[in-house]
Every structure is written in C-alpha cells, then in structure tokens.
Amino acid sequence: MDETTKMTADLIVYGKIYTADSKRSLAQAMAVADGKIIYVGDKAGAERYAGENTQVIEHDKGLVIPGMTEGHAHISSTTEIVYGVSLANKESIDDYVTAIKAYMASHPDEKVVSGSGFENGIFGSLGPTADILDDISTDVPMVMISEDHHSYWVNSKAMELVGIDETTAEVPNGVIVRYPGTSRPTGWFKEMAGNLFSAVLPEMTADNFAHAIECYQDIALSNGVTIAFEPMFDKKQNYDRRFAGYAKLNSEGKLKVTFRVGYTLEPVDDEDYVFAELSKYHEKFRYVSKIQVNTLKIFADGVVEGHTAFLRDDYADAPGDKGEPMLSQERTNAAVKRALDAGYDVHAHAIGDAAIDEVLNAYEYGQTEIDRDYRNAITHLQVMVPEHVDRMKRLGVVAVTNPYWHFRNSVYYDTLEKPFLGEERASKEYYMRSITDAGIVTSCASDFPVTVPPRTMDALHLMVNRKQPGHSEMEEMGTGETISVEDGLQALTYGGAYQNRLEKTKGSVEAGKDADFVLLDSDVLTIPKEDIYKTQVTATYICGEKVWSLGTEAPDPLR
C-alpha cells in the first residue's frame, strides 16, 4: 500500500505483541481499521496510520496476544450450572450434600433436582450411591451428572420413576453398578446407562439454552476466548432447542464469539437420522458467520475412571478387562467415511490407546482424496503410544488436548488413574511435547463444564509446567512432556483457529485478519514459568471492538 492510499486506523495498539504467525514474530504495534488488522510492525510504522479520531491503546505492561480458542466445550450445557446445582470443585461427600440441600432450600418448588460436577474419586470403591441422596429426599427425584459427564448418580425416587430395580437388564455400552453379590442397583449408572434417566431430567426451552450460551460467552470472553467449538450432544434429543438458542442470540446480534458446532453420533443413534439432522443444521447456518455446523462428533470409548476407556492391555486392577469401544471398527469406519464424503470434518473422543487406534484406522479408511485438506481431530488423548504420534502426523489429525487435566490431581491421578492404569501407563499420560515436537497442529480444550472455571492462563501454565497451579513442589505429570510458552500460545491461538478452519481470518495478529486480540497483565514470555497462572486477561477485543474488560461483573454461572 503506498502513501496515497494508506488507510487511517480506527485503533492503534502499542505494546509487546506475540503475533502467533508462522515465524512466531514479536511486534511493537498494530493498526486496525473496519475491524481488520491493517498493519503489524514497529511503533514508527503504526504511527503513520494515526488520524484525528484514531483510538490509541498503550499496553506497556504485559503482553498482547491473538484471541484464543476453546477447542471442545459443551457450551449449551451451561444450563446444568445455570439451572441446576453445581457440585464442581467440592472436596467431600458432605460438601455435595450441603450444596444440594442449599439448592433445594432456594428452589423449594423444583420437581426434579439435577446437577453436575461430582468426582468419582471422592467416593469409595462402591462409588456414589442412592442412599446418600435418599437421606436428603426420597420424594424428589435427583439426577447428578459426574464431572466427566460419563456417569450419573441418582436417588431411589429417580430409579422408581423409570422403573429400575434388580430385574433391569444391562444396557449396551453402559454399566449399571450393583451392590456386590446382588442385582440391586447402587444408584451409579455409567455411559449409556445414564440414558435411562433422560426422561427425568428437567426440560429446557430455547430461551433457557440461549441464556446459558450467553452466560458461557461471558466466561469465554473473560478468558480471552474468541472462537469456541461445541461437540453438541443431548440425552433428551433437544438439539432443535439448543440450536434455536444459538439462532435467537444471533438474530438479536448477541453472538460475539465465533461458534462452531458438531452433531454427535452416539452408539444408540440411527446413522441415517443423525446425518439428516447434521445436514439440516449445516444448511440452516451455512452462511452465518458467528455459528456454523460442519462437524460430526463420535465417541470411541468412555473414561478411565469409569473403566469404560478402551485399552490395548487390561486395567491394572481388573485382569481381563480392557474396556469396550463405543462403536465397532466397522461402524466407526462407515460413519467417518460417510461424514468425509459429505464434506464434514470429524471430531472424535478417544481416551484409551485402543480407542485411538480405532479412530486412526477410521481416518485412514475414510481419507481417500489425495489433495483434500483434512482437518479431522481427536480430543482427550489420555493413553497414547509413540506410533499414534507418527500416524496422527501422517494423517494430518489435529490434537485437541486438555491441558487443564495435565497434572497429578490427588483425586483423579492418585485415587483412580494410577490404580486403574498402573504406574507405567499413568506416568506417561497425556502427551504434549511428543505431539508438538512432531509438528502436529495442536489446540486446547477445557471440556467445560468438566473444567470449571476454564481459565486459559491455567491451561498455558499447565502446558509449560505440568504441575497444578500454585504447587511448584508437585512432581510434573509425564516427565519430558512440558512445552515452551510459545508452543502453548500457538496451541491456544493459531492451533484452535486451524482446527475450526478459521486460520485465514483469525488465530494470529497479521495484516488482513480480523482484529481479535487479548491484553494480558503480564508478559508470559518472560515471567517465571511457575507464575503464569497468576496472569489475568485485562481486555478482549473482537474485530477491534472491546467486548470484555477486567472489572466487568462476574459471569452469571460462576457467581
């Protein structure tokens, strides 16, 4: 652009800028006009774009980074927190009981009490039982969803309403936990067995979902997140209402974050129906910039803590038990190929090494077009082996990692993961450096509301330290899997944009891209790495407009 055609900037930002471009460049300034970045470089260069009405930000302390991405969050399921009892971040059964009682006292007319966030490891070997909830009430049905969303804890009234007793048969791809030596259900239902309680869960309206999505958006913006992917699923098959919530916010001009959504194929689903619905929502939002539906989500397995992750070798505490795949290899292959042939991406949940094998087999089976830019993803990736890294790189698979979990959590790691996997496998959980060093595009995900609150600076801290924030004395998880701050920032910014096919317009601070950026109150590139988690987002900008700043009222669900 020559001097005679140079634009006048609406906004100029001065400060240390981590651009996240291909060279991981640093800059001193950027200029913005009409929501786009028109200049990135030194301060003198930016000054040439200044005009009489140009707004100037002097961010001389801290760091400016691109807007960040949430690679996997159950956004519309924020209803669980807004319209139910939150059991997240509690430390004992008594804490759960206290929280439920307090919720019931403040919601005396509630016909069903639902909630989420309990941790399996807090209970003994028998797990959560109905009698604990029965001591609170035997008249009001209660349905609590675990923190990982792979099991349900219910009271006797809930079981009575759906007719569950000693004679209830096992559920395919599910587990009804029973008292030892009997057929009597304990009140703990894993994986697909949780579907038995779909009819008991409270009904949510489109307005409920819209409010919940807006509440999540507040949380996202307060953490510098400007892109978010939801692998949507609904035990009550309320997809229409969830999407109507998004549509309502979009029509009202309230969507600020760029949302991308996937439609889930569960083991009990009819593929023809799922693909018809996926096509319907894809077409409905095809030309909507703030929300699009371009992805099929599949489950390859469950979770380690429920003994439902699919492993190559037996669980350490259960000889002969390797877990089971959610879908057969043949069914996974067929679903993946059908999705790819229709032009969709696939996003797969895979925890165990055998589940990762199955997903990679399916991707290899389905990725038949030599010149196509495939962006298939695997999320969680808990139990990996080196050959997975090689295959992911060769197939161009995006690693949607969960750094929020990459530390030796006393409840999960010591109580569940190490006993269930054994020391050898547990000590090598959650590859990170192995993935990034191989050149695999990596993004970050909280799996919200599994992780509450989903603080992006906690994620960065955990990628760099592999130790719980504030506990530098802790032994790191998976020795040798820490990564650099720059690698972590790339995963949070460019990697997430790439995952969602948005890297041409977002994900880095470069001329021509949307002016989505975040102001941090400290320079995470230079501060002691053990202090990264203390960093705060002070402001979030989307297309050059400030959409959140420190001091804004706390997001509704986290009050």
TrEMBL record:
One Pfam family, short name: Amidohydro_3
Keyword terms, alphabetized: Hydrolase
Entry annotated with the keyword 4Fe-4S: no
Every Amidohydrolase domain range: 62-546
Keyword Flavoprotein (UniProt): no
Record GO terms (molecular function): hydrolase activity, acting on carbon-nitrogen (but not peptide) bonds
SUPFAM superfamilies, per database record: Composite domain of metallo-dependent hydrolases, Metallo-dependent hydrolases
Gene3D superfamilies in the cross-refs: 3.10.310.70, Metal-dependent hydrolases, Urease, subunit C, domain 1
Protein name (database record): Metal-dependent hydrolase
